[in-house]
Amino acid sequence: MRSWSIPVGRIFGIEIRIHLTFFLLLVFVWSTEAATQDASAALRGLALVGIVFGSVILHELGHALVARDSGVPAKGIILLPIGGITILDEAHAIPDPINAWKRDIRIAVAGPLVNLFIAGLTALILLAVIPGFSLTARPLLHSSALLRSIVWSNLSLGLFNLLPAYPMDGGRVLRAVFSRRMDMVLATQRAVRIGHVFSIMFMMGGMLMSNWWLVMIGFFLFVGAQLEERSAVFQSVLQSVRLEEVMLTDFATLSPADTLEDALEKAVHTLQDDFPVVRGSDMVGVISRQKILEALRAEGNGYVQAVMNRIFDVAAKQESLSSAFRKLSARNLSIIPVVDEQHLVGIVTLQNLMHSMSLLAESRKLRREARDS
After folding, report:
1. Least crowded by CB within 10 Å, which of 71, 85, 211, 306?
2. SS3 at position 278
3. How many CB atoms neighbour CB 190 within 10 A?
4. Tell me: the pLDDT tens digits for 291-333?
């Protein structure tokens, strides 16, 4: 998502990004309205898009701000042609196993409540300020009725997201309720199955009525539910796998007294990208292959001690993969030394973690298939 989106600013410290596919929608609206030979119609069409996506931003900000107040930081919001996504930083969430389901419900309903509040407030203002203004006149949501569209776009967005169709907000509430009686993976899978029923209904209804917007919504609901289910399984694996199962035990180390040219020579003969720097039995820093090259190009040959990173974290071999990911992301690290009784016994890097995760997933799949057969 982040690699296919561009940042456009921050609101309340939360990064707002626009997915590149969003610009296809702008082009589509402009070309459709401009075909009427009326430039003002094209501008009104873009204004309608702005109203809808302004409503989406406020919807997602509702999720993000409530999540932050509940102990789950928000990384950012990404705008898509069919809505938005709030990316939460689960790795830095404050643990609350007892009330986690209540927290999930608060976060989920915050978005729709924001839209319903905006719809109600806007309706009251329009009725009070504009004599004879009708909220129910046709069309309800159209570029020719922008003021009325503010009300109906927010009302539609709020009510639509309350449908129990995972991964929409109503589906997330449903998953939170399920999670009271089962683990999160099973709760997600049950909510996904219900979401699939809704997505199939949308697609079939859209095809019967030749409404391709409904078909597209149903399709994205189906795909989104599948991705969320995989994410839940991935998080479950992170919690259950220990570092001793995936850490590298055959690795090279460097000394702070090594020259950069010597360090580069050692790096040439290993597949490692990151190296622990050890003095005697003590670990004193870490350094990457890229850092060695940059230092050589900028300053010439020197010593590892001068350019190594002295800020690093360590992990015990009994810790979970989830703990390792939190430590890697907390300080934007690329390597974590693994210790046992204060002795360096292995290393974990982002590169080897992702490689190990795919192998672990495959091995568990094979064991499951062998058990079922």
Report:
1. 306
2. strand
3. 16
4. 899 899 988 888 999 888 887 788 888 888 777 777 776 666 7
Cis check: omega of the bond before 167, within 30 degrees of 0: yes
Which class would CATH give 244-360? alpha beta
Crossing angle for the helix pair 39-69 and 100-129, to the nearest 10 degrees: 140
Rounded Cα gap, residues 274 and 287, in angstroms? 6
In angstroms, the CA 25 to CA 52 distance is: 12
Q: Please give the Cα distance from 11 to 16 (Å, whole number).
A: 7
Distance of alpha carbon 19 from alpha carbon 181, whole angstroms = 37
What is the rounded distance in angstroms from the CA atom of residue 347 to the CA atom of residue 343? 12
> Residue 282: left (phi > 0), alpha (psi -120 to 50), or beta?
beta
Per DSSP bridges, beta strands 14-19 and 74-80 are parallel
DSSP state letter for 95: P
SS3 266: helix
Cα separation of 256 and 254, whole Å?
7
Amino acid at residue number 252: A
CA distance 174 to 163: 10
341-364 burial: b if 16+ Cβ within 10 Å, else e: eeebebbbbbebbeebbeebeeee
Q: CB within 8 A of 294, min separation 6: which ones?
A: none
Q: Are 180 and 101 in contact (CB under 8 A)?
A: yes
CA-wise closest residue to 118 among 150, 86, 92: 150
Alpha carbons 167 and 173: distance in angstroms, whole number: 10
Token duo for residue 155: 């009302």
Q: Is the pTM of this model over 0.85?
A: no
Which residues, other chains included, contact 256 with Cβ-Cβ below 8 Å and sequence gap of 6+? 277, 279, 284, 285, 303, 304, 305, 308
Helix, strand, or coil (residue 74): strand
Element spanning 338, H or E: strand 335-340
Angle 81-86-88 from CA coordinates, rounded to 5°: 155
Q: From edge to edge, which strands make up the β-sheet containing 5-11?
A: 5-11, 14-19, 74-80, 83-88
Low-confidence ranges of the chain (pLDDT < 70): 1-3, 25-26, 28-39, 81-82, 90-97, 329-332, 354-365, 368-369, 372-373
